[in-house]
Amino acid sequence: MNSSEPLLSQDTPRAIELLAAARTHLLEVLLPSTAGDSRYSALMIANALSIALAELEQQRANPHMSVKSDVGEQLCHQLRDGAVEDLFDDDLLKCLQSDVDARLSVANPKRLSP
Amino acid sequence: MMSCPESLVEYLRVSLNRPDLRVDRYERLSGGAIQQNMALDLVSDDAQLAIDAVLRTDSATSVSVSLSRLQEFAILQAAFDAGVLVPEPLLKCMDASIIGAPFFVMARVEGRAQPHLLTRKSVLDESGREHLVSSIGRALAQVHAIPLDDERLSFLERPSSTDLLRQRVAFYRRCLDELKAHRPVIEWALAWLDRQRIRQTELTLCHNDFRTGNLMIQDDTLTGILDWEFTGVGDPHEDLGWFCAPCWRFAARDREAGGLGERQAFYLAYERESGRIVDHGTVAVMEVLATIRWAIIALQQGARFDSGQEPTLELGLTGRMIAELEQDLLQLVPACERLIA
């Protein structure tokens, strides 16, 4: 046996489940006893936890998702240079919408288009 | 409660000519990142003086586009003298040694600036909402009627060109470049905006941050307009667009006048007071512009967080608002295109 190799044990609950429990505790246990500025703070924290959770869940569901792409940058240059004639082209709108949807589903799923 | 610096008490005694003045309350009010607001209760021994006031000064962080506190004071004076609903400006101090920065003092206004509360359903009934947005429309028209030739306002920059839309587009493109941000949806909206032509309107004083969160409201009436630090000269439709933009309606997205009431009542009151017709198409374009402006501010605040300059939760969450602002743009631009076609 090679004892210099890391054992890589993993304990549970994992990050996602811990964050979900923290959020529930915040909303169900702490929030009811807050008011005014404290309540606003608690709601902000709950919001941040929701975003973090959704991001981790998205990563878990898409483990091979690449982090960055040049395509968006290229599109920006084309739009800036006036090279896109039809701003209401179906494919263009679908492409922009799907990019926003991917980020909305993490940051604010209530705002996703029906 | 904090204790009021002795240097400030002395200064107030001299400025108001009240040697027996006391500061009964000196407390931080919730305010912006750019300025600090302190509640200040001024009383005299003989009870002749009893002013509930607000002291306004700069925070450590300041933004180049906002006016200095002394310039803001001049605007408050011009607005107050023109009969606009603003807190009464009482005194200003250019001496930074008193509390560490120039400041001014104004009377407190009754009511609250609570957009989250006000945009909830149960708070006001239909007629209350109509009364409220009418009082707001009337007040905005009065803002736009503040005389530009008032000497105290000579520091305000006049726009260098008559094509305000083109200027705004160029400015926001520069902001994106400074952020090194690649935002296809914002570039798309700017490309669309760049192709629009709006009817030229007479330039007026514009508040430039006229939204529900900056309005003091008591029951169903406007009691004061706050935060004049972005005041400038421009197309009055820009203020109308900022107020009506979906991004500023909080939970009440179907109430198009600031999340508080109907657009029609707001426009009607504005038109009656100003004698000017509101160009609906221009306001729609200005709502797109407003959303772009707020999106860029959100990116800037997110960048402050990322840089480590100010990694506060509020800034971080503002940075992550960008997706819903881009969603607003994807919905607004085609709707506006249909409206003005």
Helix content of chain A: 55-70%
Number of helices of chain A: 4
Shape of chain B: globular
The number of distinct β-strands of chain A equals 0
Q: Strand portion of chain B, in percent?
A: 15-25%
Can you walk me through this structure?
The complex is a heterodimer of chains A (114) and B (341). In chain A, 61% of the residues lie in helices and 0% in strands. Chain A is mainly α and 114 residues long. The model of chain A has no long low-confidence stretch (mean pLDDT 93). Chain B has 341 residues and is of the alpha+beta class. Chain B has helices at residues 6-15, 69-81, 115-118, 126-144, 164-179, 184-194, 236-244, 263-274, 280-306, 313-319, 322-340, and strands spanning 21-29, 35-44, 50-58, 89-93, 103-107, 204-206, 215-218, 221-225, 232-234. Chain B is globular, with a radius of gyration of 21 Å. The interface between A and B is medium-sized, with 30 and 28 residues.
SSE topology sketch:
The complex is a heterodimer of chains A (114) and B (341).
Chain A: H1 15-30, H2 36-61, H3 71-80, H4 90-107
Helix pairs in contact in A: 1-2
Chain B: H1 6-15, E1 21-29, E2 35-44, E3 50-58, H2 69-81, E4 89-93, E5 103-107, H3 115-118, H4 126-144, H5 164-179, H6 184-194, E6 204-206, E7 215-218, E8 221-225, E9 232-234, H7 236-244, H8 263-274, H9 280-306, H10 313-319, H11 322-340
Antiparallel strand pairs in B: 1-2, 2-3, 3-5, 4-5, 6-9, 7-8
Helix pairs in contact in B: 4-8, 5-6, 5-9, 6-9, 6-11, 7-9, 9-10, 9-11
Briefly, what is this?
The complex is a heterodimer of chains A (114) and B (341). Chain A is mainly alpha-helical and 114 residues long.
